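To illustrate this point, what follows is a protein record of this kind.

___
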Amino acid sequence: MATGRWVHEVGSWDSAQAYAGEPTGWAHAMAEAGHDVASFGKLHHRSGADDDGFTERHLPMFIVGGTGWLQGLPRREPIPYDEAHELASDVGVGETTYTRYDRRVTEAACEWLGSPDRTAAPWTAFVSLVAPHYPLSAPEEFAALYPLDEIPPPEIEPLEHTHVAVRAMQSFFNYDDYFDDASRTQARAAYFALCSYMDHNVGLVLAALDASGQRDNTRIIYTSDHGELLGNRGLWCKSFLYEDSVAVPMVVSGPGVPAGRTVEANVNLVDIAATVTETVGAASSTSSESLVHRALHPESDRPAFSEYHDGGSITGSFAIGSGEWKYIHHQDYAPELYNLAEDPDELIDLGGSSRVAAERAALAKTLNDLVDTTAANNAAFASQIALIDQHGGRDALANAFRFNHTPIPD
């Protein structure tokens, strides 16, 4: 998202290898073009000592201690994720450190947008809210919007996952083992309430932009870093390459953007970079394509792409979406293949079906044209092994600071 380059291009393989300013990204380009470039809230970059391009940071959240989630590094000999039980135990109604943090972030962004300085010089702002990340507990006024007796169960019942790579991930992130029907309903209600809380905060930021008189000359991008499985398939949070996790909102408005148009064509988070930098005539990486260009030219068949090399995974996994098809490649294991038009819930795996051999081969070629999966998988494991050694070995990591979500900065 910061650079407009894929994970395998920048080597940010996991939650312990965060962006540290290299290669340069859209924030650097905008600063070089003379913009004030401000961040508000969650960055999850490595540390404040790195030049990530921002000219000012407000309430920044970096990865813990500049090292992040070390326990996820030993993927071939995983450290048990005992913190998984906390997801089910921290559900309900009430404020959390995250909801209070988002309120502070929103207030800071609104105050900044309202300053007379915003009309004195061009600016670029990154407002990054945590909600609806767990803990799944929401402020009372938003929780009241979702009575528990109106909350539906997960749309997809718990499954016995047969793919070895998926089963290994489910065993590691065994969140669902700690839920019962009551807590599952509470968690889902809280997630919906947190979405409404986040929408409320976004509304306040947009109202501040309106009040500043700059709405018409400002390009706005609204998106998220990942989705949420929310109990579907017996899975929670992110990490898996199913649509619940990898399909995210993407709304763009502003100068040059066609109003009221819904585009079904694939886009990617790397495309944010080109969308930002083209406003000042700066180039972006070849992996990034302007979302505005995409809105104006939706006919091109550009694939959607995701990859995962983080904790819980026994191998690198790569997903390609093209047309009605979704292809998931697990390095050294059988692939998964889904027809999203006929099977939007991804319940019928056609990865081994001879009936769709041509489609599977075409998607595999599309993936191989984009990334050498063997090289990427080897590079990820090699990088993680080196980090494990650097931090004293597996036993030392097992006893390092443990957490299930990043603590709020002071």
About this structure: Residues 181-211 form the longest helix (31 residues). The chain has one domain: 7-302. The domain at 7-302 is CATH 3.40.720.10 (Alkaline Phosphatase, subunit A). The chain has a mean pLDDT of 96.
